[in-house]
TrEMBL record, chain A:
Protein name: Origin recognition complex subunit 5-like
Record localization: Nucleus
Similarity field: Belongs to the ORC5 family.
Source organism superkingdom: Eukaryota
Nucleotide-binding in keyword set: yes
Pfam family, one: ORC5_lid
Species this chain originates from: Musca domestica (House fly)
Domain Origin recognition complex subunit 5 C-terminal: 324-459
The keyword RNA-binding belongs to this UniProt entry's keyword annotation: no
InterPro entries, sorted: AAA_16, ORC5, ORC5_C, ORC5_lid, P-loop_NTPase
SUPFAM superfamilies reported in the protein's UniProt record: P-loop containing nucleoside triphosphate hydrolases (SSF52540)
TrEMBL record, chain B:
Annotated ranges, domain Origin recognition complex subunit 3 winged helix C-terminal: 617-724
The protein's name: Origin recognition complex subunit 3
Ranges of Polar residues composition bias in the record: 533-544
Family listed: Belongs to the ORC3 family.
Signal peptide extent: none
All residue ranges annotated as the Origin recognition complex subunit 3 insertion domain in the record: 354-604
Region (Disordered): 523-544
Domain of life of the organism encoding this protein: Eukaryota
Keywords: DNA replication, DNA-binding, Nucleus, Phosphoprotein
Domain Origin recognition complex subunit 3 N-terminal: 3-343
Sections of the chain in a coiled coil: none
Species: Musca domestica
Gene behind this protein: LOC101890899
Family matches, as InterPro entries: ORC3, ORC3_ins, ORC3_N, ORC_WH_C
């Protein structure tokens, strides 16, 4: 039971899972099940446990193990060769399943008696050759070895529909950690976090401050850390249950949490004030969870002050960060107008003397638009290059030649993913290519403001 | 060669090892030869004196720009390199999270081709500081995951050996380049770092600081297919324990692009730090102000040319590289006008060049536009004749003329500094914020007569005393500083400017002290005056008897000019002095520049425009509409553009005919019209000559090839026009 204890220590709250796995795949004298399907959400420890399990397994017993990430296997050949390299040792060439089985059979003579093949991201197997999934599940039968295939994936087994049918598989599920369990796991990284804090202090400050701060750090207890984690989880647990993500964010926020203490502004025991200090940074880092911005300290602090209205702010920031050339901006606006107006309205919108419109009941009815008919909610429509240029020239006051530089701007916009090809990407030359504007109204409004152009005036929905 | 007698049997390859050696020798030879040669130009051109001056000037400017660019990008790159170095001692390991790829996002700005060089520079820098392999992975190599991984692995393993002398070792085939291959390669090359299990114990982490990094640079992030990129990052992260990967993303738009392209389960595998490079307009400004407007170089751009080049940059492409090439083109055009332009260099060097000038060159100098006013200004008949006919006499005169030009431009630049400080931060910036804008306007037009200029002056006059004094004194100090840093003792002829600069600045200073003093005195006198007026006026008004009287009095009072305060007067004086003595005299338009300024200023904007801005549609239209323009033949000289001649090329006739049609063109009508132009027989009923029909068909095909028409699928025998 040495293996299980080791793993249980490393991965608390997964005792059942580890035990079951160990019972099924441990002793090479016993017959392994032919395949086990392990599913569960991200950050529930599937891959990590299996990986460690295989490592320990390979060391203790006379077993050979291999872990393959199926994302890497863009051809089946890589999958086979990767598995064979670890199981049979030595580079072998293998092009198809028949050879694969053949080579494995020959490996029978070797004294190793247990083989485990673990496939991470097993859902990718569905996109490979049709025969792979069913045959891997019956690998034991084919090869006559004591071999077990572990499939690890995030989706439930029911999603593996296969025409030829899939044989019965033992399925293991790793449930998400509860709040208590998460707390327990996170508190396990107490020592590491303190160690990192020390490293940070050593990196940053001068000697005297350093000594003072290190004294404070020595005073941090496990209990204090758990208290912090409680506060932390009360904010984060609703939004994110991915344990690695929580681990990183927790340790990051802990540094901010400790800052007033290290500066000597707040006592270590004054939890209430500490909470007041951390509340805002916690909320702002909640909006950045998963994004993994690695920021410099000072930036972090300055950001907390401004991040009141994040959504609005970020858009403006985005627009400001974009530095497009002048005509590029106009082209983008023209593309937006082309995407969000119907072509038969062009004359009314862009030609100065377009004549009087006859009012008919039909057209009045058609104009009474319901919200669903607003083109802004219908999404962008496609337009041809000619129309784009025509609108561009109509909204631009000055006269510009149709030069290479101007035309190359269009392709730059496409490269930057501000415009996208809808069809005919390959025959731009004959004018049948159709484009689409991919940016939103607010962004265009902002750009319009920068160049002094009223976008609303030219939109059918608003005009 | 005996073994292969028959040529007809096929081709035979002889492996004798000699070819390789030959090639390398050739390569080195070519390298050695290249400095002596000058590319495509023949010797007859490169030997000309103007070419030598051109080459020298360009080399100087180029190295100046390069130095500037390296300097300005140095800070960001250094930060990035520091980050890379720091990442070798991975913090996340302490948390037991090893599958996280450190990544740096470099926000580069929208002109992607411009930045490739920057990434090369970056990889050199990284290589200098730590042991790392670097792979520049471009989106064009990554159309599928397979090719992406293969290119990456291939670049890591094979690229360093690309230019090795002995290529005896077997090269990998692309299909052999898998992650496993990379792992084996890494284990073979850096065994000590990767043999241990990173999770084994913590002491190892201290050693692992020196691990050899594998850095993947994606210079054009936006161009990647999102799905391939996701998979690629997943692969990198799953191999992160064995291979210390690091990602550097070149992002052209903004950081939001990363989150648009990558979902959570992928971003959670990377750790992103953002770096910002200098934005392109800022970079351009720096180049303009420090290099192109530098007084060091004798070559100048005229206001229009200058504006034209910056216009392309700001309105079209944001390409600094493009700007520099455009500038280079202007430089070439300038010097290639003739040997007289060899005088466009340092004063002392130009003195030596004068001797070498031939009669033709002297004639060229005489032909310059500004030469005529100069001649007219001489009132001695003999001297005029001498200067127009005697080369030696003109040669004697030239140094003083050149000197005058040099000093003029130097002073121009010095006082540009003065004016810039005056107007750069006025509300709404009527004249613009930057030196480049001011330079272009001043050189192009008479700035004093511009409404924007008047507006500026008005605003300046309305300033409060403190502001005004601060502004003028700042302008003075800045000008002085500029003079001392850039010109004093550094450039020849500095002594000649010195006096002018110092006296003018001194005068301004004196006027300024007057302004200050005026304020002091005015403080008292104004109060007295005010007291007087406030005391007198109510009394006067009280004395008024009738309403009519009051009205008259008030009217009279309003008509009376308010006493101009001394402060306002002295401000006006200062401004007038600045306008007259600085702006008018030294920042005048090009027409007022001293004679022979054409030698130093490039203003032939039309040629440059025609040559560096491609307008394919216009050119094609011109070629088809008026072939004479390009062919220069005698037969198709058109009186007007719409004229149709049978001697025109068929395609040209067809093109002109199709311009008259609507969206759909009936082929038969077109053919008839074509025939009537090409071969005008009266008889319409006659069968169409097959030769004409063949010519027609060929011309239609050619027009279709050029993209003007397309055969309609909806209507038989009709073609659709594609252009308007």
């Amino acid at each position: 039971m040495y293996t299980t204890e080791l793993l249980e220590n490393r991965y608390p709250c997964r005792t059942d899972f580890i035990r079951i796995l160990y019972c099924m795949v441990s002793k090479s004298e016993e017959n392994f099940p032919s395949a086990i399907y392990i599913s569960g959400h991200t950050g529930t420890g599937k891959t990590a446990i299996v990986k460690d399990f295989l490592n320990i397994h390979a060391e203790c017993e006379n077993n050979r193990t291999v872990l393959v990430n199926c994302v890497e296997c863009y051809t089946t050949k890589i999958l086979y060769e990767h598995i064979l390299e670890e199981l049979v040792l030595g580079g072998t060439r293998c092009d198809n399943f028949k050879e694969f089985v053949e080579i494995l059979r020959q490996a029978k003579n070797v004294e190793q008696s247990g083989f485990v093949v673990a496939l991470d991201n097993a859902d990718r197997l569905r996109d490979m050759d049709n025969n792979i999934l069913p045959s891997l599940l019956r690998l034991q039968e084919f090869t006559g070895l004591n071999i077990c295939v572990l499939l690890i994936s995030q989706i439930p087994l029911e999603k593996y529909y296969c025409k030829t049918g899939v044989s019965e598989v033992i399925s293991l599920y790793t449930p998400q950690y509860t709040k208590v369990e998460t707390l327990k796991i996170l508190s396990g990284s107490f020592e590491n976090t303190v160690h990192m804090l020390k490293c940070r202090i050593n990196d940053n400050c001068d000697a005297k401050v350093q000594r003072n701060q290190l004294v404070i750090v020595e005073q941090i207890t496990q209990e204090f850390y758990n208290n912090y984690l409680n506060i932390f989880l009360s904010v984060f647990y609703k939004a994110c249950r991915d344990v690695p993500e929580l681990k990183i964010t927790a340790s990051k926020c802990f540094f901010t949490y400790m800052e007033p203490v290290l500066n000597g502004n707040v006592e270590l025991s004054d939890v209430a004030r500490l909470w007041r200090n951390i509340a805002v940074p916690l909320r702002s880092s909640l909006s950045q969870v998963y994004m993994r911005f690695d920021k410099v300290e000072s930036e972090m602090l300055s950001n907390h002050n401004l991040e009141g209205n994040l959504a609005d702010n970020s858009l403006r920031k985005l627009a400001r960060a974009f530095e497009l050339p002048f005509y590029g901006k106009y082209l983008l606006i023209a593309a937006f107008l082309a995407s969000h107006n119907s072509a038969n309205q062009d004359k009314r919108l862009f030609v100065k003397h377009h004549g009087k419109q006859r009012k008919r009941l039909q057209s009045v009815n058609a104009k009474a638009k319901v919200a669903e008919k607003m083109s802004s909610s219908l999404g962008p429509k496609s337009f041809s290059l000619d129309r784009l240029l025509a609108i561009f020239y109509a909204i631009l006051d000055e006269k510009v030649g149709l030069t290479c530089n101007l035309l190359s701007q269009i392709s730059t916009l496409v490269h930057l993913k501000l415009l996208g090809f809808v069809s005919g990407e390959n025959n731009v030359m004959d004018g049948s290519a159709r484009l689409q504007c991919t940016v939103g109204l607010e962004f265009i409004l902002y750009i319009g403001k920068v160049v002094g152009f009223n976008v609303y005036q030219y939109l059918c929905d608003f005009a | 060669m005996d073994s292969t007698i028959s040529v007809s049997k096929g081709c035979f390859v002889f492996k004798n090892g000699a070819t390789r050696a030959d090639k390398s020798k050739k390569a080195t030879k070519r390298k050695k030869a290249s400095p002596g040669q000058t590319g495509i130009l023949g010797k007859e051109i490169t030997d000309q004196p103007f070419y030598a001056v051109y080459a020298e000037t360009w080399n100087k400017i180029q190295s100046h720009i390069d130095a500037l660019q390296i300097e300005s990008s140095a800070k960001t790159l250094q930060e990035l390199v520091d980050y890379v170095v720091k990442e070798s001692k991975n913090e996340e390991k302490y948390l037991g999270l090893v599958e996280i790829v450190p990544a740096a996002a470099l926000l580069t700005g929208i002109n992607q081709p411009d930045h490739l060089e920057q990434f090369d520079n970056l990889s050199h820098r990284i290589n200098e500081q730590i042991s790392a392999s670097i792979c520049l992975l471009q989106s064009r190599d990554c159309s599928t995951l397979k090719s992406a991984v293969e290119t990456m692995v291939y670049n890591f393993i094979e690229a360093p050996h690309e230019d090795d002398e002995d290529r005896d070792h077997k090269r990998l085939r692309k299909s052999q380049c898998t992650m496993n291959q990379l792992k084996t390669w890494y284990r073979n090359n850096w065994p000590d770092a990767s043999h241990k299990n990173p999770q084994s114990n913590e002491e190892d982490n201290a050693n692992s600081k020196a691990r050899h990094m594998l850095i993947v640079i994606l210079p054009d992030f936006e161009c990647f297919n999102a799905f391939i990129l996701q998979d690629l990052i997943l692969i990198l992260s799953s191999n992160c324990t064995d291979l210390p990967f690091m990602l550097i993303l070149g992002i052209a738009t903004s950081i939001a692009a990363v989150h648009n392209a990558l979902p959570y389960h992928v971003t959670s595998k990377i750790k992103l730090r953002i770096f910002k490079t200098q934005s392109a307009p800022v970079g351009l400004n720096e180049i303009l102000e420090k290099v192109i407007l530098s007084p060091k170089y004798a070559f100048h751009l005229s206001g229009k040319a200058f504006k034209f080049l910056t216009h392309i940059f700001l309105y079209y492409d944001f390409s600094i590289n493009g700007f520099i090439q455009g500038f280079k083109y202007c430089l070439m055009e300038h010097y290639f006008q003739g040997n007289a332009y060899a005088l466009c260099c340092n004063y002392s060097t130009s003195l030596t060049k004068i001797k070498a000038l031939t009669h033709d060159d002297m004639e060229m100098i005489r032909k310059q536009l500004s030469f005529r006013p100069y001649v007219e200004s001489i009132n001695d008949c003999k001297r005029i004749i001498a200067i127009l006919t005697d080369d030696d006499y003109l040669k004697k005169k030239l140094p003083s003329l050149l000197k005058e030009c040099h000093i003029y431009f130097m002073l121009y630049r010095i006082f540009l500094e003065f004016l810039t400080v005056l107007v750069e931060d006025l509300p709404k910036c009527p004249l613009g914020k930057f030196r480049r804008e001011l330079y272009a306007t001043c050189l192009a037009k008479d700035v004093c007569s511009q409404p924007e200029y008047k507006e500026c002056w008005q605003v300046l006059a309305f300033m409060s005393k403190d502001e005004f004094v601060a502004k003028i004194s700042k302008a003075i100090t800045q000008t002085q500083e500029f003079y001392e840093q850039e010109i004093h003792e550094k450039l020849e002829l500095f002594a000649d400017c010195e006096e002018i600069v110092i006296t003018k600045l001194h005068d301004v200073k004196e006027l300024l002290t007057k302004v200050v003093m005026a304020g002091m005195d005015a403080g008292k006198s104004q109060q007295q005056q005010q007291q007087q007026t406030t005391v007198t006026s109510p009394e006067e008004l009280k004395q008024v008897s009738s309403r009519q009287d009051l009205k008259d009095k008030l009217l009279q009072m309003s008509k009376e000019q308010k006493p101009v305060s001394e402060f306002a007067k002295s401000v006006q004086e200062t401004l007038d002095y600045i306008e007259k003595e600085i702006v008018m005299t030294h920042l005048g338009p090009l027409q007022k520049a001293p004679p022979l300024h054409e030698l130093f200023v490039f203003s032939d904007i039309a040629t440059v425009k025609r040559n560096i801005i491609g307008a394919p549609r216009a050119a094609l239209h011109m070629a088809l509409n008026n072939p004479h323009f390009y062919l220069q033949c005698k037969c198709c000289n058109l009186r007007e553009n719409t004229q149709l001649l049978p001697s025109l090329p068929d395609i040209s006739v067809m093109y002109k005919l199709h311009l008259e049609c609507g969206r759909m063109i009936n082929l038969y009508d077109w053919l008839q019209a074509f025939r009537s132009v090409v071969d005008f027989t009266e008889d319409d009923q006659e069968q169409i000559d097959p030769q004409i029909q063949a010519r027609f068909t060929r011309a239609v095909a050619e027009l279709q090839f050029l993209g003007y028409i397309k055969m309609s699928k909806r209507k038989t025998d009709h073609a659709t026009r594609l252009t308007w």
